Amino acid sequence: QVQLVESGGGLGEAGGSLRLSCTSSGSLAEIKTMAWYSQAPGKERDILARITTSGTTVYADCSVKGRFTISRDGARNTVYLQMTSLKVEDTAVYYCQETNGNRYWGQGTQVTVSS
Q1: 21 beta partners
Q2: In angstroms, rounded to a whole number, what is the distance separating the alpha carbons of residues 25 and 16?
Q3: What is the rounded CA–CA span in Å between residue 24 and residue 38?
Q4: Which of 29-33, 74-78, 95-99 has the highest mean pLDDT?
Q5: Dist CA 58 CA 13 (whole Å)
Q6: What residues are paired with 37 via a beta bridge?
Q7: Neighbours of 27 (CB within 10 A)
Q8: Which of 10, 56, 61, 113 could, after both became Cys, cross-link 52 (CB 3.0–4.6 A)?
């Protein structure tokens, strides 16, 4: 069973930056895709971006493209979400996901952006 541990959430200011981290307990050798999702209050969980083992990235949410950057450190089995130019509407719970044939979720980390 893979465990994903997220960190880095909290309170940010509009226009500011935060960096989220997600460390996987899974195998370093596995081919897998990792992704970040967000779920705003009263809304569905939506994918923001994903990154493959080879480093290919896809940003699924136009509202974050150019502001958020997904990256990974293979040696640390960790994926990051660098969030810049924060907006109040970025307030949400952010979830990390790993897919390697099976799908695993982190526990979520709250990000609150104040104006």
Answers
A1: 7, 80
A2: 30
A3: 18
A4: 95-99
A5: 26
A6: 47, 95
A7: 11
A8: 56
